[in-house]
Amino acid sequence: MEQFLQPAREEWESLLARPTASYTEIEPIVAKVFNEVRERGDAALKDYTTQFDKVVLTDLVVPKTDIDQASDRLTSELKQAIQLAKTNVEGFHRAQKTPKVSVETQAGVKCWQEKRPIQKVGLYIPGGSAPLFSTILMLAIPAQIAGCTEIVLCSPPNESGSLPDEVLYTASLCGVSKIYTVGGIQAIAAMTFGTETIPNVYKIFGPGNQYVTVAKQCATHYNVAIDMPAGPSELLVVADQSAQPAYVAADLLSQAEHGPDSQVILVTTSQDILPKVAEEIERQLAELPRKEIAAKAIANSKMIAFSSDELAIDFINQYGPEHYIICMEKEALYVEAIQNAGSVFVGNYTPESAGDYVSGTNHTLPTNGYAKQYSGVNLDSYLKQMTFQKISKEGIQGIGPAIEAMANAEGLQAHKNAVTLRLNDLKNE
């Protein structure tokens, strides 16, 4: 990891950059796949699966027998771990339910807000070198709690043309039965347009690589909503002399091993910690099974020392990390000051991997600085907030003249008439 000591603000722009391709570079590829899937349906999905995943598929649907048998092939230890994670994720997301909001804004004018589930949702579960079955918990559980009536799950096949047992077991545990062996751009296109086999949805959830991220953004051009632009994983750790260098290094590597386009950042106000963390990274990296992947991500990552808490905090908020770990003596200051982060992990004993799996918070989070504008996935991500109002005779008499005056000022006579007719009738009663 390259080190930067007290960088001037003129250098910040380059330090804030992510090692990802631009939207404009990837969009033509995505557009071609989208057009093919829209025109050719399942046939295009199979062709692109052969091209991108090097797998020939005869059927896109995962048979129920495969789903049922997956449980038998997993260890009881792993199943218990998944069940614990499910319990905690359910508990945290059920707690996010809110009651109906109702208020009488003035006599006879009642306004209220209720939430309704998005009926059809699509869940994208990344595969490849590390199938993220934990993401099913993060996406399917709030969908079920919200009451979504149709949940579609797509995930890329492994080398044998199937989905890992962990994926099938977790999906079944979360009540998901519509499971399809398709990934990448073509999966997002399938859930956008619908094919002979895969139904279209109203909103697509889930992280992915740069191509999946751009595909999700393209889906919004076709009246499909998305959770957020969630691309390659990233982590920022802020640490001082109170932190354990081995812990910091382990946390940085935990995100680096996701993929070569991941990025990790260490920010500190204690310059002395930098060589200690660098030494630990080198030592731990050598022992990782995915060390080649992690090493590429580390090469795109940075260690940055600032001269003050104010500068460090300003930089962190401008970066807007997906994951943010605070290991500082001034813990409260950094917790209070953070404005832009997907999920925050506080203290030496709060590794990012806890949030990835079992603590209960959601790990589907905004990346690439989108934490400035987006929240991570939560219960409300699957709900629409609808407003209602009911106005009595007394109510329309109370607000009617104001409506008439405003409509008249805007030159919208029909708006005014809709009120005037009612007021005249009430005068004649």
Note down, in words, how this protein is organized:
The chain contains 17 helices and 14 strands. It has 429 residues and is an alpha/beta fold. The strands form three sheets. It has a six-stranded parallel sheet with strand order 1-11-10-9-12-13, with helices on both faces. Strands 6-5-4-7-8 form a five-stranded parallel sheet, with helices on both faces. A three-stranded antiparallel sheet has the order 2-3-14. It is globular.
Q: What count of structural domains? A: 3
What's the CATH architecture name of the largest domain?
A: 3-Layer(aba) Sandwich
Shape: globular
Count of discrete alpha- or pi-helical segments spanning 4 or more residues: 17
Structural class: alpha/beta
Give the overall average pLDDT: 96
How do the strands line up in the largest sheet? 1-11-10-9-12-13
Q: What is CATH's topology name of the largest domain?
A: Rossmann fold
Unreliable parts: none
